[in-house]
Write a structure and sequence with these properties.
α4 links the parallel β1 and β2. Strands 1-2 form a two-stranded parallel sheet. The longest helix is centred in the first third of the chain and has 16 residues. α1 packs parallel to α3, α5 packs across α6 and α10 packs across α11. The chain folds into three domains: 121 residues, no CATH class; 54 residues, no CATH class; 64 residues, Arc Repressor Mutant, subunit A (Orthogonal Bundle). The protein starts with 8 loop residues before the first helix and ends with a helix. With 265 residues, the protein is mainly alpha-helical. 50% of the residues lie in helices and 7% in strands.
Length: 265
């Protein structure tokens, strides 16, 4: 979805429904459905029930959405996620709704962004968490990329990223495609215009309105502790920190260095 659509509910829901039709290779009927004097959420719900499900009779349908965290910044995020939750709840009514399955992929725990957890689609169904790669898994991923790194270099990358799945995959892709050398990757890893700049700035932006999260993260970086347990769980949910015994640590060296510089003044 385009960035501008996430700010405008009427544009967003129309594009959302048009995208569904395109992905399922169906005729787009948004203009027809939107003639009803209803709000965009109800129109989108009717679109799924009366067009998508009816056009694919008898078969289970999986609606998978990646990078759902982009919606956390939307002014109508609660309405959107409530709509998805209502689709899940309608399965109990029987009929075509029982054939609709949702898979939502996000890089951060969403509870801090959704005001009413009873309207959240994230606390129903099964949760599959992707843990950090082990050294063996990192070596296998390096092999699948044509081994752009020697063993000593791979150890350095693992030390920097801690096996972070997305960052490890991105680093190996950049190296395998020869878009960057390993020395340059290490030298610019913590820069805003470096290989991980978009990812790091995104985390920084999400914390911009939460002084308690910034303060808590600096406490972790400096003292390996977090006095506020609620803040700890929010930082852990965002994928920024981890608990090892009685210590609370940054998830990896990259985060410790980058956020230590940006938040430390």
């Amino acid at each position: 979805m385009e960035g501008a659509a996430i700010e405008n509910p009427d544009i967003f829901y129309r594009q959302f429904c048009s995208t569904l039709a395109w992905e399922f290779d169906l005729e787009d009927r948004t203009e027809e459905i939107w003639k009803a004097p209803l709000g965009p959420v109800q129109n989108a719900t009717n679109y799924v029930l009366r067009h998508i499900l009816k056009a694919i009779p008898g078969e289970p349908i999986l609606l998978a959405m990646d990078e759902v965290e982009r919606m956390f910044a939307s002014p109508f995020r609660s309405d959107f996620f409530s709509m998805l939750r209502s689709w899940h709840n309608r399965r109990a009514q029987g009929g075509d709704w029982t054939r609709l399955n949702l898979a939502l992929v996000t890089s951060t725990e969403p509870y801090q962004f959704i005001a009413d957890l009873n309207q959240s689609p994230f606390n129903v169904g099964a949760v599959v968490e992707l843990s950090d790669f082990s050294p063996g898994q990192g070596a296998e991923l390096n092999r699948r990329h044509g081994e752009p790194l020697q063993d000593t270099e791979l150890d350095k990358l693992t030390g920097l990223l801690g096996g972070h799945p997305y960052l490890t995959r991105k680093a190996l892709h950049l190296l395998a495609s020869k878009r960057i050398t390993f020395d340059v990757l290490l030298a610019t890893a913590c820069e805003d215009d470096g290989p991980f700049g978009d990812h790091l700035r995104n985390h920084l932006f999400r914390m911009s309105d939460y002084a308690e999260l910034k303060s808590g993260l600096m406490q972790v970086i400096k003292y390996q502790r977090c006095a506020d347990e609620h803040v700890f769980f929010r930082l852990r949910g965002a994928g920024l920190v981890r608990r090892v015994g009685n210590d609370v640590l940054p998830r990896n060296e990259l985060y410790a260095e980058y956020f230590g510089k940006r938040l430390g003044g």
